[in-house]
Design brief:
single chain; 267 residues; alpha+beta; 2 domains; 4-stranded antiparallel sheet
Length: 267
């Protein structure tokens, strides 16, 4: 059979294309499920990164952060106050005699001792009528009195020269005014008339109970003074002022008391 050259060339090309088609059948079926070229390239590149290089990079970043933070803090410290100095340096106390006097005077009338007592008061009014006597013209009242006596120091009377402060501010000396009686009063809720005997011809005396109450206040005050309320009040005043001024840190306090005043109610 005779073939033209062009036909022969066409036939050879068709055979070669047929062989190539059969060879590429696997590729056409399997490459549909295979990863793309872009993904396979990225995966291969990621497998090539060394963990050691990643660790070195992380350490370098941390070091740079610490260095930046240190330099930033140093810069702030140069333009602002030293925080360590603020925390560790205590605020100095400025102590003067006038300041101590003002502080003590805030206590005003310092009550340092209280005395409570009960007394039976017998007040009688005799008769001036001869022969009849007190049993027909007399008047008597029996009062059960319950009262309280309070003593203390009037710190409002404290003067600046009564307080001395050492040059270094570590010693304070206070000279207290004398203890005095603030009050001697009856408790009306507990004070009562126990009995009253009035004669048939006795004149009316509406002030007899008032006289009994006044006598009761005097007797209660006298009993408190005899039991040493003024001395006890003086000791308590010294202790109270020492504790009050002792709240100042690092300061020694000396309190000098005065002899108690007269044991009567102060005006």
């Amino acid at each position: 059979m005779y073939y033209d050259d062009d036909d022969e060339d066409i036939r050879r090309r068709a055979q070669r294309l047929s062989r190539l088609r059969r060879r590429s059948d696997w590729d056409d079926d399997d490459w549909a499920d295979a990863p793309s070229a872009r993904y396979r390239s990225h995966f291969a590149a990621s497998r090539g990164v060394s963990p050691f290089l990643v660790l070195l990079l992380l350490i370098a970043l941390i070091g740079l952060g610490v260095l930046w933070f240190t330099q930033r803090m140093n810069a702030l410290g140069s333009i602002g106050p030293n925080l360590q100095v603020i925390v560790q340096t205590p605020t100095p106390q400025i102590i003067s005699g006038a300041a101590v006097v003002q502080r003590i005077q805030q206590l005003s009338r310092l009550e340092t001792s209280k005395y409570t007592i009960e007394r039976v008061i017998d007040i009688r009014q005799g008769s001036n009528i001869p022969i009849i006597g007190d049993w027909l013209a007399g008047d008597a009242i029996l009062l059960i009195a319950h009262g309280t006596v309070v003593v203390g120091v009037d710190l409002s009377r404290l003067t600046p020269d009564a307080v001395t402060v050492s040059p270094d501010g570590k010693q304070i000396t206070v000279r207290l005014p004398p203890v005095q009686v603030f009050s001697a009063t009856l408790d009306n809720s507990k004070t009562r008339v126990y009995s009253r005997d009035r004669g048939l011809f006795a004149p009316e005396n509406p002030n007899l109970e008032t006289m009994a109450r006044q006598a009761a206040e005097q007797q209660i005050l006298q009993a408190a003074c005899e039991d040493g309320i003024m001395e006890q009040g003086t000791r308590n005043a010294e202790l109270a002022i020492r504790q009050f001024l002792g709240l100042m840190d690092g300061v020694a306090v000396e309190v000098i008391t005065s002899p108690p005043a007269e044991c009567k109610v102060a005006p």
